[in-house]
Design goal:
Elements: H1 3-26, H2 35-58, H3 65-86, H4 90-112, H5 115-118, H6 121-146, H7 156-210, H8 214-235
Helix pairs in contact: 1-2, 1-7, 2-3, 3-4, 4-6, 6-7
Length: 242
Protein backbone atom coordinates (compact mmCIF):
# COMPACT_ATOMS: atom_id res chain seq x y z
CA UNK A 1 0.00 0.00 0.00
CA UNK A 2 1.39 3.40 -0.97
CA UNK A 3 1.97 6.29 1.41
CA UNK A 4 -1.12 8.14 0.15
CA UNK A 5 -3.35 5.10 0.55
CA UNK A 6 -2.00 4.46 4.05
CA UNK A 7 -2.76 8.05 5.05
CA UNK A 8 -6.27 7.79 3.60
CA UNK A 9 -6.88 4.50 5.42
CA UNK A 10 -5.75 6.01 8.73
CA UNK A 11 -8.01 9.00 8.13
CA UNK A 12 -10.90 6.64 7.43
CA UNK A 13 -10.31 4.64 10.62
CA UNK A 14 -10.01 7.87 12.61
CA UNK A 15 -13.42 8.96 11.28
CA UNK A 16 -14.87 5.66 12.58
CA UNK A 17 -13.38 6.39 16.02
CA UNK A 18 -14.68 9.96 15.88
CA UNK A 19 -18.18 8.79 14.93
CA UNK A 20 -18.31 6.32 17.81
CA UNK A 21 -17.08 8.94 20.29
CA UNK A 22 -19.75 11.37 19.09
CA UNK A 23 -22.44 8.69 19.58
CA UNK A 24 -21.05 7.86 23.04
CA UNK A 25 -21.12 11.55 24.01
CA UNK A 26 -24.73 11.78 22.83
CA UNK A 27 -25.59 8.80 25.05
CA UNK A 28 -23.94 10.22 28.18
CA UNK A 29 -26.56 12.16 30.21
CA UNK A 30 -24.08 12.92 32.99
CA UNK A 31 -22.42 15.50 30.71
CA UNK A 32 -25.51 17.66 31.09
CA UNK A 33 -25.78 18.40 27.38
CA UNK A 34 -29.08 19.77 26.01
CA UNK A 35 -31.38 17.18 24.45
CA UNK A 36 -30.97 18.68 20.99
CA UNK A 37 -27.17 18.51 21.28
CA UNK A 38 -27.35 14.86 22.35
CA UNK A 39 -29.51 14.00 19.35
CA UNK A 40 -27.23 15.96 16.99
CA UNK A 41 -24.16 14.10 18.28
CA UNK A 42 -25.92 10.78 17.80
CA UNK A 43 -27.15 11.71 14.31
CA UNK A 44 -23.88 13.13 12.96
CA UNK A 45 -21.87 10.41 14.69
CA UNK A 46 -23.91 7.81 12.79
CA UNK A 47 -23.40 9.76 9.57
CA UNK A 48 -19.63 9.79 10.08
CA UNK A 49 -19.78 6.05 10.76
CA UNK A 50 -21.42 5.42 7.38
CA UNK A 51 -18.68 7.35 5.62
CA UNK A 52 -15.89 5.69 7.60
CA UNK A 53 -17.14 2.10 7.24
CA UNK A 54 -17.94 2.53 3.53
CA UNK A 55 -14.45 3.89 2.78
CA UNK A 56 -12.80 1.26 4.98
CA UNK A 57 -14.52 -1.49 2.96
CA UNK A 58 -12.96 -0.09 -0.23
CA UNK A 59 -9.47 -0.89 1.07
CA UNK A 60 -10.38 -4.58 1.45
CA UNK A 61 -9.92 -6.76 -1.64
CA UNK A 62 -12.37 -9.27 -3.07
CA UNK A 63 -15.42 -10.51 -1.20
CA UNK A 64 -13.65 -11.39 2.03
CA UNK A 65 -15.67 -11.76 5.26
CA UNK A 66 -13.89 -8.67 6.57
CA UNK A 67 -15.19 -6.58 3.65
CA UNK A 68 -18.72 -8.00 3.82
CA UNK A 69 -18.90 -7.36 7.57
CA UNK A 70 -17.64 -3.79 7.18
CA UNK A 71 -20.22 -3.10 4.48
CA UNK A 72 -22.94 -4.49 6.76
CA UNK A 73 -21.77 -2.13 9.50
CA UNK A 74 -22.21 0.83 7.14
CA UNK A 75 -25.68 -0.37 6.13
CA UNK A 76 -26.71 -0.62 9.78
CA UNK A 77 -25.96 3.07 10.30
CA UNK A 78 -27.89 3.88 7.13
CA UNK A 79 -30.93 2.44 8.93
CA UNK A 80 -30.19 4.70 11.90
CA UNK A 81 -30.17 7.80 9.68
CA UNK A 82 -33.38 6.61 8.01
CA UNK A 83 -35.05 6.24 11.42
CA UNK A 84 -33.94 9.73 12.44
CA UNK A 85 -35.29 11.37 9.29
CA UNK A 86 -38.43 9.35 8.54
CA UNK A 87 -39.73 7.88 11.79
CA UNK A 88 -41.32 10.32 14.22
CA UNK A 89 -42.54 7.66 16.64
CA UNK A 90 -39.90 7.39 19.38
CA UNK A 91 -40.76 3.74 20.09
CA UNK A 92 -40.33 2.66 16.45
CA UNK A 93 -37.15 4.72 16.13
CA UNK A 94 -35.66 3.07 19.20
CA UNK A 95 -36.57 -0.37 17.82
CA UNK A 96 -34.63 0.44 14.62
CA UNK A 97 -31.66 1.55 16.73
CA UNK A 98 -31.79 -1.80 18.52
CA UNK A 99 -31.94 -3.65 15.18
CA UNK A 100 -28.81 -1.75 14.15
CA UNK A 101 -27.02 -2.94 17.30
CA UNK A 102 -27.81 -6.57 16.46
CA UNK A 103 -26.69 -5.96 12.86
CA UNK A 104 -23.41 -4.58 14.17
CA UNK A 105 -22.97 -7.71 16.30
CA UNK A 106 -23.61 -9.91 13.25
CA UNK A 107 -21.21 -7.80 11.16
CA UNK A 108 -18.53 -8.16 13.82
CA UNK A 109 -18.94 -11.95 13.90
CA UNK A 110 -18.62 -12.04 10.09
CA UNK A 111 -15.45 -9.93 10.28
CA UNK A 112 -13.97 -12.26 12.91
CA UNK A 113 -14.61 -15.25 10.61
CA UNK A 114 -11.91 -13.85 8.32
CA UNK A 115 -8.59 -15.64 9.01
CA UNK A 116 -6.58 -12.58 8.07
CA UNK A 117 -8.17 -10.61 10.92
CA UNK A 118 -6.75 -13.05 13.47
CA UNK A 119 -3.25 -12.51 12.09
CA UNK A 120 -3.33 -9.02 13.63
CA UNK A 121 -4.07 -9.00 17.36
CA UNK A 122 -5.34 -5.42 17.41
CA UNK A 123 -7.95 -6.21 14.74
CA UNK A 124 -9.26 -9.26 16.60
CA UNK A 125 -9.30 -7.56 20.00
CA UNK A 126 -10.80 -4.32 18.67
CA UNK A 127 -13.62 -6.10 16.82
CA UNK A 128 -14.44 -8.30 19.83
CA UNK A 129 -14.75 -5.18 22.01
CA UNK A 130 -16.98 -3.48 19.40
CA UNK A 131 -19.24 -6.57 19.31
CA UNK A 132 -19.44 -6.53 23.11
CA UNK A 133 -20.26 -2.80 23.09
CA UNK A 134 -23.10 -3.26 20.60
CA UNK A 135 -24.52 -6.15 22.59
CA UNK A 136 -24.46 -4.10 25.81
CA UNK A 137 -26.13 -1.18 24.02
CA UNK A 138 -28.83 -3.49 22.61
CA UNK A 139 -29.57 -4.73 26.15
CA UNK A 140 -29.83 -1.15 27.36
CA UNK A 141 -32.28 -0.26 24.61
CA UNK A 142 -34.29 -3.36 25.37
CA UNK A 143 -34.54 -2.20 28.99
CA UNK A 144 -35.63 1.25 27.84
CA UNK A 145 -38.33 -0.19 25.58
CA UNK A 146 -39.73 -2.25 28.47
CA UNK A 147 -39.40 0.46 31.08
CA UNK A 148 -42.31 2.61 32.23
CA UNK A 149 -39.97 5.60 32.16
CA UNK A 150 -40.19 8.04 29.21
CA UNK A 151 -38.41 6.86 26.06
CA UNK A 152 -36.24 9.97 26.17
CA UNK A 153 -34.50 8.42 29.18
CA UNK A 154 -31.11 6.91 28.31
CA UNK A 155 -30.30 3.61 29.98
CA UNK A 156 -26.85 3.34 31.62
CA UNK A 157 -26.14 0.23 29.57
CA UNK A 158 -26.48 2.31 26.39
CA UNK A 159 -23.84 4.72 27.68
CA UNK A 160 -21.46 1.90 28.59
CA UNK A 161 -22.04 0.20 25.27
CA UNK A 162 -21.28 3.42 23.37
CA UNK A 163 -17.96 3.99 25.13
CA UNK A 164 -17.05 0.29 24.81
CA UNK A 165 -17.48 0.55 21.03
CA UNK A 166 -15.37 3.70 20.92
CA UNK A 167 -12.61 1.87 22.84
CA UNK A 168 -12.62 -1.02 20.35
CA UNK A 169 -12.45 1.34 17.36
CA UNK A 170 -9.57 3.25 19.02
CA UNK A 171 -7.60 0.01 19.50
CA UNK A 172 -7.95 -0.80 15.78
CA UNK A 173 -6.93 2.73 14.79
CA UNK A 174 -3.87 2.80 17.07
CA UNK A 175 -2.85 -0.66 15.83
CA UNK A 176 -2.94 0.56 12.22
CA UNK A 177 -0.93 3.67 13.18
CA UNK A 178 1.74 1.50 14.81
CA UNK A 179 1.80 -0.78 11.76
CA UNK A 180 2.17 2.20 9.41
CA UNK A 181 5.07 3.62 11.45
CA UNK A 182 6.79 0.22 11.48
CA UNK A 183 6.43 -0.12 7.70
CA UNK A 184 7.96 3.33 7.21
CA UNK A 185 10.95 2.37 9.37
CA UNK A 186 11.45 -0.81 7.33
CA UNK A 187 11.23 1.15 4.06
CA UNK A 188 13.79 3.67 5.33
CA UNK A 189 16.14 0.84 6.35
CA UNK A 190 15.85 -0.82 2.94
CA UNK A 191 16.45 2.48 1.17
CA UNK A 192 19.48 3.17 3.36
CA UNK A 193 20.97 -0.25 2.52
CA UNK A 194 20.37 0.37 -1.19
CA UNK A 195 22.12 3.73 -0.96
CA UNK A 196 25.10 2.11 0.78
CA UNK A 197 25.32 -0.57 -1.92
CA UNK A 198 25.16 2.08 -4.64
CA UNK A 199 27.93 4.07 -2.94
CA UNK A 200 30.13 0.96 -2.76
CA UNK A 201 29.58 0.20 -6.45
CA UNK A 202 30.38 3.80 -7.32
CA UNK A 203 33.64 3.70 -5.35
CA UNK A 204 34.68 0.47 -7.10
CA UNK A 205 34.11 2.05 -10.50
CA UNK A 206 36.20 5.08 -9.54
CA UNK A 207 39.08 2.89 -8.36
CA UNK A 208 39.14 0.80 -11.54
CA UNK A 209 39.13 3.94 -13.70
CA UNK A 210 42.11 5.41 -11.79
CA UNK A 211 44.35 2.27 -11.70
CA UNK A 212 46.00 1.69 -15.13
CA UNK A 213 45.60 -1.66 -16.82
CA UNK A 214 49.06 -3.35 -16.88
CA UNK A 215 48.13 -5.87 -19.54
CA UNK A 216 47.20 -3.07 -21.95
CA UNK A 217 50.52 -1.29 -21.40
CA UNK A 218 52.52 -4.50 -22.06
CA UNK A 219 50.67 -5.07 -25.35
CA UNK A 220 51.36 -1.47 -26.39
CA UNK A 221 55.09 -1.83 -25.59
CA UNK A 222 55.35 -5.08 -27.62
CA UNK A 223 53.60 -3.48 -30.59
CA UNK A 224 55.95 -0.51 -30.41
CA UNK A 225 59.02 -2.83 -30.30
CA UNK A 226 57.92 -4.79 -33.38
CA UNK A 227 57.16 -1.59 -35.26
CA UNK A 228 60.64 -0.20 -34.46
CA UNK A 229 62.29 -3.47 -35.50
CA UNK A 230 60.52 -3.41 -38.88
CA UNK A 231 61.70 0.16 -39.50
CA UNK A 232 65.29 -0.80 -38.78
CA UNK A 233 65.11 -3.79 -41.14
CA UNK A 234 63.78 -1.62 -43.94
CA UNK A 235 66.52 0.95 -43.49
CA UNK A 236 69.35 -1.57 -43.10
CA UNK A 237 68.77 -4.63 -45.32
CA UNK A 238 72.29 -5.89 -44.54
CA UNK A 239 71.16 -6.76 -41.06
CA UNK A 240 69.26 -9.67 -42.57
CA UNK A 241 72.51 -11.34 -43.64
CA UNK A 242 74.63 -10.60 -40.59
Amino acid sequence: MGAKNETLKLTTLFSVVLGKIMIALGLTPSLGLPKETQQSLFFYGSLVQINGDALDAEFLRGDSPDKIGTQLQAFGYVLVIYAFIVLQDQYKRLKVFQVNNFMQVLAGVIILSDRNVWKKNYLAIGNIIIILGNFIMALGRNDRLRSIAPLAYIDPLETRGGWTQATGAAIIFLGEVEKSMRNKKVEKGVQKNLNLENDKEGNKLKRTSVIPDKSCSVVKEEALFHHTLKDLMKKSPLLLYN
